[in-house]
Amino acid sequence: MDFWTEFLGSLLSGLLTTLQMILIAAPAGILMGLLLGTMRVYGGRVLSSLALSITAVFRGFPLLVTLFILFFGLSEIKIYLPPFWAAVIGFVLCSGAYISEYVRGSILSIEEGQSLAARSIGMTKLQEILYIILPQAIRRALPSISNEIAYMIQYSSLAFAVGVQEIFSISKTFNSIYFKSIEIFSVLAVIYIILGEISTYIFRFVEKRIRIPS
User: Domain 8-210 is of which CATH architecture?
Assistant: First the structure.
């Protein structure tokens, strides 16, 4: 079989796997970040400390270490995660920890007067958070969240370390067989650039849709 036919066919299969990982991990990481960031500010001593601990751990660990713990470490206590799900969970934990900091900072940047106004019209604390604080915090945090998802697209290549057959793993395998480094990794680089640009476009579109007219 011709090299390019075989390589591009295999790469397409790997691309589908990469997209599946990102499409699951990105929204889950954003939700985790929103939850942890909100807990940091409004969770009281116990929940705030718990959220801080989770954030500190998964921001402190290199992602590769997290993946190895999930895939290899858990197997020692008879918990076996498939490579795909070990990678996805690792991505969620890593991105969620970073996004939580963006959300926390955005919440703290909102003027205290808005909380006072919400209480003055009879809103409960939960209503204030859900309808007044979080919508504004999300708008303010969105550019940083967009950057984190762009990073996720890049570090999705680390999934090869736990055996996921994604685009980097397939490219690495083909390079070890055919030794066409420039051709193989140039194609791979273009794919990552395209994925990053698509992600950036989507977030810019969302930003425009939810922007409050000045």
Answer: Orthogonal Bundle (1.10)
